[in-house]
């Protein structure tokens, strides 16, 4: 203590006594003069105010400690008047940012003259004890909350003899006894009478006491006498001197769970039995393509055992290039969510363990289970069925060829009928040219050259018809190409209506804006249209109108030829497409029959339709081409 300050200290406090007092008292003390300048302070005060290594003597409290100067000044003035000022708990922020709780007092001390000579400040920091109290309180609150909200479990505490001391809301709901009814009740009340007679409740407590815990599944009794299957855990609570010993019991009603588990087990057994006997192979994969399940039929189909397939990527069952592309298909589906084969049938190729590639039919279903997306694929081997189908197809072709050969006489007549028109045209053109040459009309030579070109074209068309009909007779195949129906109709009309103008007959062609294309034998379908248009011209004879139209009708392209002639007699309508049935003096009655045969060989149909205003309308359809290749693959 500085010499000039010693004089201000109370003479009745010896230096040694003051030091001893300040060092032993658990609170921190500081002695100030009337101006709040330090005289003496305890070591605890220096530590709590982070003044270690400093001598605050002679310095003002206002200068050294971060305090609210205005509040301190108010307290300072009150103490100088002889009052004692204190605070039970006050929040204080230290120099290092730490928060403490303070209990403090400021009291005056008097000099020998009885006047206030200074101020004694006492601080106590109960932060640690407050935190312990708060932690204990929170633990008590959390335990109470846990016990109250665990309504799916019956939680109860038992004393050492097995009587209830705590009974939560879940126990009330599960057993039916209220808390007031249950407190003090023996645990044995929740057992069936037979188990009470066999001392089962006491044996369970004894096992928990000796082993520390006991677990069991058994039937328990409610207040109303009904029983339920319960999962029970009993834990020993050791006596610690302050708390009595006893047991804690947790009970869970598993009646529904057990029923569901047994039902699930039975369903699983039934499902496994079905999967072992279902004829189609079943493979289950996850969204990464990893095989999760591989049925018995799948083993037989691909040659892999379940230990070889499960856990592997399903692409191992595919040939190239599908093997490389499969994971990309799955990734695209995960990103877009747009299915391409789910829920539909698809033909693809599989690869067996021995490397053999074979055709199969795939049906894919999607499901969600265990928090993940699963895909189940049913696969059917098409090897045998497709080989059988190929043999049947070949047999049908051979039978059709035999039928065609047996009808060669009729078809030879049909050839004569179809060739009659181009051959007559060639004859007329050649005769006209010969007459022109004999007349020596030089001005007509150019027209004669054009006529000879036309005769050549007709001769080539007749040759093409003979070649195609010969091919049809030999194998029954059509030389199909992808064609524009509008172009077919326009060219056929131009060929068939050359003499219509001379007869005063007008014709028109109506086309859809954008009809689909068709896969046909161009010459045969064009010949059908030419026959229909020429029949219309012959029916009208002189004057009148012919309307040709090409329209879209669902999946088909519809061709129609309509005239305003006399029409078809009612008694002739059912014989229109019968071979050798005709009203023409020079006709053979094969034209419409051949036309219908050609249309049906293209997968279409042909019919007659009566026109209300008079005349006749013949229509036929050809399937629209769906973009597949010419061979149908």
TrEMBL record:
Extract the GO molecular function terms from the UniProt entry.
Answer: ATP binding; phosphorelay sensor kinase activity
Q: Which UniProt keywords apply?
A: ATP-binding, Kinase, Nucleotide-binding, Phosphoprotein, Transferase, Two-component regulatory system
Q: Which reaction does it catalyse?
A: ATP + protein L-histidine = ADP + protein N-phospho-L-histidine
Domain of life of the source: Bacteria
Pfam families in alphabetical order: HATPase_c, PAS, PAS_4
Per the database record, which ranges form the PAS domain? 157-184, 267-325
Which biological process annotations from GO are given for this protein? regulation of DNA-templated transcription
Q: List, alphabetically, the InterPro entries matched.
A: HATPase_C_sf (IPR036890), HATPase_dom (IPR003594), His_kinase_dom (IPR005467), HisK_dim/P_sf (IPR036097), PAC (IPR001610), PAS (IPR000014), PAS-like_dom_sf (IPR035965), PAS_4 (IPR013656)
Q: Which residues form a coiled coil?
A: none
Q: What EC number(s) are associated with this protein in UniProt?
A: 2.7.13.3
Q: What class of enzyme is it?
A: transferase
Q: NCBIfam families of this UniProt entry?
A: sensory_box
What is the role of this chain? Putative oxygen sensor; modulates the activity of FixJ, a transcriptional activator of nitrogen fixation fixK gene. FixL probably acts as a kinase that phosphorylates FixJ.
For this entry, the protein name equals Sensor protein FixL
The record lists the organism as Croceicoccus mobilis
């Amino acid at each position: 203590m500085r010499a000039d300050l010693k004089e201000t200290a109370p003479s009745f406090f010896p230096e040694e006594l003051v030091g001893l007092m300040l060092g032993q008292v658990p609170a921190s003390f500081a002695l100030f003069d009337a101006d709040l300048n330090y005289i003496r302070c305890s070591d605890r005060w220096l530590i709590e105010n982070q003044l270690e290594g400093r001598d605050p003597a002679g310095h003002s409290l206002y200068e050294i400690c971060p305090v609210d100067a205005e509040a301190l000044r108010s307290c300072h003035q009150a103490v100088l008047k002889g009052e004692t000022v204190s605070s039970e708990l006050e929040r204080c922020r230290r120099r290092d940012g730490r928060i403490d709780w303070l209990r403090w007092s400021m009291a005056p001390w008097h000099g020998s003259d009885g006047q206030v000579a200074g101020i004694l400040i006492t601080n106590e920091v109960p932060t640690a004890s407050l935190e312990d109290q708060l932690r204990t309180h929170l633990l008590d609150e959390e335990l109470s909350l846990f016990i109250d909200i665990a309504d799916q479990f019956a939680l109860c505490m038992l004393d050492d003899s097995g009587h209830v001391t705590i009974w939560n809301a879940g126990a009330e709901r599960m057993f039916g006894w209220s808390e007031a009814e249950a407190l003090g009740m023996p645990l044995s009340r929740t057992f069936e009478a037979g188990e009470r007679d066999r001392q089962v409740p006491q044996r369970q407590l004894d096992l928990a006491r000796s082993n520390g815990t006991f677990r069991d599944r058994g039937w328990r009794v409610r207040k109303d006498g009904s029983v339920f299957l319960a999962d029970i855990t009993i834990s020993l609570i050791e006596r610690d001197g302050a708390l009595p010993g006893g047991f804690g019991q947790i009970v869970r009603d598993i009646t529904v769970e057990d029923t569901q588990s047994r039902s699930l087990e039975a369903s699983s057994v039934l499902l496994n039995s079905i999967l072992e006997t279902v004829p189609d192979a079943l493979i289950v994969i996850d969204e990464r393509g990893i095989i999760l399940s591989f049925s018995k039929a799948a083993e037989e189909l691909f040659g892999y055992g379940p230990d070889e397939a499960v856990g592997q990527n399903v692409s191992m069952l595919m040939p190239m290039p599908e093997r490389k592309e499969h994971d990309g298909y799955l990734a695209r589906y995960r990103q877009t969510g747009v299915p391409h084969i789910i829920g539909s049938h698809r033909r693809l190729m599989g690869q067996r363990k021995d490397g053999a590639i074979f055709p199969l039919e795939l049906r894919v279903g999607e499901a969600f289970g265990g928090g993940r997306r699963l895909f189940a694929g049913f696969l059917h081997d098409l090897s045998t069925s497709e080989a059988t189908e190929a043999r049947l197809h070949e047999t049908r072709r051979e039978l059709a060829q035999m039928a065609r050969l047996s009808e060669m006489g009729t078809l030879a007549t049909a050839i004569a009928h179809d060739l009659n028109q181009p051959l007559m045209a060639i004859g007329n053109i050649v005769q006209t040219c010969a007459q022109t040459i004999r007349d020596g009309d030089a001005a007509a030579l150019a027209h004669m050259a054009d006529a000879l070109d036309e005769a050549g074209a007709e001769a080539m068309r007749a040759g093409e018809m003979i070649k195609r009909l010969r091919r049809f007779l030999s194998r029954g195949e059509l030389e199909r190409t992808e064609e524009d129906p509008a172009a077919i109709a326009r060219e056929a009309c131009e060929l068939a209506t050359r003499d219509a103008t001379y007869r005063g007959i007008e014709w028109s062609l109506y086309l859809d804006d954008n009809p689909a294309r068709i896969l046909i034998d161009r010459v045969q379908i064009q010949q059908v249209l030419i026959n229909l248009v020429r029949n219309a011209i012959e029916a009208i004879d002189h004057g009148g109108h012919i309307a040709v139209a090409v329209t879209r009708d669902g999946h088909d392209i519809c061709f129609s030829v309509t005239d305003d002639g006399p029409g078809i007699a009612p008694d002739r309508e059912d014989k229109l497409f019968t071979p050798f049935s005709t009203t023409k003096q020079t006709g053979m009655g094969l034209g419409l029959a051949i036309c219908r045969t050609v249309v049906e060989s293209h997968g279409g149909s042909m019919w007659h339709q009566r026109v209300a205003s008079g005349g006749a309308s013949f229509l036929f359809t050809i399937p629209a081409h769906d973009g597949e290749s010419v061979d149908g693959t």
